TrEMBL record:
InterPro entries named among the record's database cross-references: Xyl/GlcA_transferase
Organism: Elachura formosa (spotted wren-babbler)
Annotated GO MF terms: glucuronosyltransferase activity; metal ion binding; xylosyltransferase activity
Membrane topology: Single-pass type II membrane protein
Family matches, as Pfam families: Glyco_transf_49 (PF13896)
Encoding gene per record: Large2
PANTHER family recorded: GLYCOSYLTRANSFERASE-RELATED (PTHR12270), XYLOSYL- AND GLUCURONYLTRANSFERASE LARGE2 (PTHR12270:SF23)
Keywords, comma-separated and alphabetical: Glycoprotein, Glycosyltransferase, Membrane, Metal-binding, Signal-anchor, Transferase, Transmembrane, Transmembrane helix
Lineage: superkingdom: Eukaryota
Subcellular location: Membrane
Statement: the UniProt record of this protein carries the keyword Transmembrane: yes
Keyword Chloroplast assigned: no
Protein name per its UniProtKB record: LARG2 glucuronyltransferase
Length: 186
């Protein structure tokens, strides 16, 4: 059902003619067993009952807040959202889109930097009104443990972020300033 829906959305949006990243709204459950909702209506009632949450709502709401879940609840057509700092949605993009920056391996900043690059290249960020994904609980990854426990790891990541910003400035000039300003004001 959902892959058919995605294909249909993609054809209607005609991604061959436009640069767009299709955002699949993300939710999560704290239950190890979950009956996957068959429809958006079912998902919304699970959300209202508290058996699902918007993704990372408790720990990192900024990562998905720009998706605008309140708008998504009633949306029937794809809608555009603006880039915001730390936005890291799950996206469907054409194969020829910019690749992930390979400096960001392990935990931290791989999706954030990718969305930043798409935004810098003027990709439209479009939220799909009937698509959703659900993150299931799992043990913390080895890399997130390293990030939490090691000041050295966090320091390296900060250095890579600064390098990435410099590269963006070189490639996109003044347009890339908003990323740096956003970063500085956090």
């Amino acid at each position: 059902h959902s892959s058919y829906y995605h294909r249909n959305s993609i054809q209607q949006l005609d991604l061959t003619q436009r640069k767009a990243a299709l955002i699949v709204p993300a939710f999560e459950t704290l239950h190890y067993r979950l009956t996957f909702p068959k429809s958006k209506a079912e998902l919304l009632s699970m959300l209202d009952m508290g058996s699902l949450y918007t993704f990372r709502y408790h720990v990192w709401p900024k990562g998905h807040a720009p998706t605008d879940y309140a708008k998504w609840r009633t949306a029937t057509v794809p809608y555009r959202v603006a880039w915001q700092p730390d936005f890291e949605p799950y996206v469907v993009v054409r194969r020829d889109c910019p690749k992930y920056d390979q400096r960001f391996v392990g935990f931290g900043w791989n999706k954030v930097s990718h969305i930043m690059e798409l935004d810098a290249q003027e990709y439209e960020l479009l939220v799909l009104p009937n698509a959703f994904m659900i993150h299931m609980p799992h043990a913390p990854s080895f890399d997130i443990s390293k990030f939490r426990l090691s000041a050295g790891y966090r320091g390296c990541l900060q250095t890579l972020r600064e390098e990435f910003h410099q590269d963006l400035s070189r490639r996109y000039g003044a347009a890339a300033l908003k990323y740096l300003t956003a970063e500085r004001s956090l």
